[in-house]
Amino acid sequence: MPDQDPRLSSPAALRNRGPIADLLRPVLPETGTVLELASGSGEHFIHFASLFPKLVWQPSDPSPEARASITEWVESEALTNVLPPLDIDASSETWPLKRADAVIAINMVHISPWPATQGLLAGAGRLLPAGAPLILYGPYRREGQPLVPSNVEFDASLRARNSAWGIRLLEDVASLAEQSGLSLTSVTELPANNLGVVFTRQ
Ligand SMILES: C[S@@+](CC[C@H](N)C(=O)[O-])C[C@H]1O[C@@H](n2cnc3c(N)ncnc32)[C@H](O)[C@@H]1O
């Protein structure tokens, strides 16, 4: 029997990687290393690595299955500007690298416990030099605004799967980010009621 292909694939990642690339284009540096937290299947950054070949892409995920998928995608796409995936739990106080020129996290904040977001913001604050971006993508609540019905349903389904997950209030994320020296610089509405959120290291 042939070995199972370890490359994971997500229809949502294939749908949203175009709009996310448009969000990244004006914000990423010309050169340097981009750290991705929670890379999952790897289908986002392999697309970005071929679109932005001058950048070095550093994927990561705490899941061994995700890292196996990432390794296989990188090999099958013959990408040369990608480093081997790191095992990073965002909530850990130490990450196995000292610097990144940009940090991205796609669909992580609502699908992980709140300490992962706390760790993500603290870690990005430690690694990024002044002026460098942290870019988040996903659904958020906004103060004083009701969630659209599809996100109410999505939030309930997340909480049913894991009571520590759920759509976060962007204002909570932004005030925590300030404590790590990250200022909210833009919020962009993207398809399917998701936001692209950019912070800049002060
Ligand atoms: C919904 S998937 C998103 C994957 C990919 N970014 C995407 O949008 O297709 C959530 C990912 O977060 C990762 N994750 C969960 N908890 C984490 C943590 N504490 N630190 C880093 N990643 C985490 C999971 O392993 C999973 O790959």
Describe this entry's structure for a reader.
By secondary structure, this protein is α/β, with parallel strands linked by helices. The protein has two domains: 1-13 and 36-88; 108-202, 3-Layer(aba) Sandwich (Rossmann fold), CATH 3.40.50.150. Helix content is 36%, strand content 19%. It contains six helices and six strands; from the N terminus they run αβαβαβαβααββ. The protein has a six-stranded mixed beta sheet with strand order 2-1-3-4-6-5, with helices on both faces. Strand 3 (102-106), helix 4 (114-127) and strand 4 form a beta-alpha-beta unit. Helix 1 packs parallel to helix 2 and helix 4 crosses helix 6. It starts with 10 loop residues before the first helix and ends with a strand. The mean pLDDT is 97. It binds S-adenosylmethionine. Residues 10, 13, 37-41, 44, 61-63, 66, 89-91, 106-108, 111-112, 116 line the site of S-adenosylmethionine.
